[in-house]
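Researcher: I'd like a candidate sequence for this fold, 266 residues long. If you have to choose between options at a position, lean toward the conservative one.
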């Protein structure tokens, strides 16, 4: 997100950071607002119409949502409605991001931020390995309301409230496939903690010293602390494959052998 939308997004997230409302409720209500705006393009367009004065857009947001959400949520929506947006979708994407930030704040207040990061990663792994579950959660013809009870039945009571909320929101798949949205949420959680997320594939389980040295090397490369999510994958034979955002650092033996094979065939 760039330009005027990026500036407005930062203003919205800043309100979430300073909010005195109950953060879990704030996150849930912001997710509901994003869903409502997705379902009513006409309202979304009116709230982002640059020809309409900010006060008028704010009043419209209060008229539509004021009696349905808490004052803290309305305060976030007020800033969003007064902002300038390059597209109406940028507004709803930002409202969703604000919901993620609120749930991060809830986890921080509860002392469960580490659990939130670990649980999102482990939930993603489980879903990737369960083809039927992955198929249902990735099916965009199935509504989020129908997916939520399924997620509740699998993860309810086993993960923190913040994790459960983000899993349900990822299942809504507003901006892409479930797995990609869940990965983006994990990245946003890490970013709110001023660190980056790295998925590491290794042929064997890394020891504490190996993890420490790898985290230090990646921190030096990216200039921020790094959260390692390690996946044991015997197919890479040896070495490591590290994914940080869109960057892939592939030092696996399997990849090197494949490169050699291609050169020989060529």
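Model: Candidate sequence:
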């Amino acid at each position: 997100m760039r330009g005027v939308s990026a500036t407005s997004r930062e203003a919205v997230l800043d309100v979430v950071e300073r909010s005195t409302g109950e953060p879990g409720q704030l996150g849930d209500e912001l997710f509901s607002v994003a869903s409502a705006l997705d379902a009513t393009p006409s309202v979304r367009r009116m709230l982002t119409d640059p020809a309409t004065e900010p006060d008028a857009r704010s009043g419209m947001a209060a008229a539509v949502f004021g009696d349905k959400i808490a004052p803290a949520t309305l305060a976030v929506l007020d800033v969003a409605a007064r902002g300038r947006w390059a597209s109406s979708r940028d507004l709803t994407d930002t409202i969703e991001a604000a919901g993620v930030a609120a749930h991060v704040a809830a986890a921080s207040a509860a002392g469960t931020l580490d659990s939130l990061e670990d649980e999102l990663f482990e939930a993603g792994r489980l879903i990737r390995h369960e083809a039927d579950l992955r198929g249902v959660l990735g099916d965009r013809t199935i509504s989020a309301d129908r997916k939520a009870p399924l997620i509740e039945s699998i993860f309810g009571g086993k993960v923190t409230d913040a994790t459960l909320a983000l899993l349900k929101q990822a299942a809504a798949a507003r901006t892409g496939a479930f797995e990609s949205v869940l990965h983006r949420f994990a990245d946003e959680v890490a970013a709110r903690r001023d660190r980056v997320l790295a998925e590491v594939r290794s042929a064997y389980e890394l020891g504490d010293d190996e993890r420490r040295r790898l985290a230090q090397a990646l921190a030096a490369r990216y200039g921020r602390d790094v959260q390692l999510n390690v996946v044991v994958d015997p197919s890479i034979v040896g070495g490591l494959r590290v994914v940080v955002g869109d960057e892939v650092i592939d030092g696996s033996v399997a990849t090197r052998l494949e490169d050699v094979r291609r050169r020989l065939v060529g």
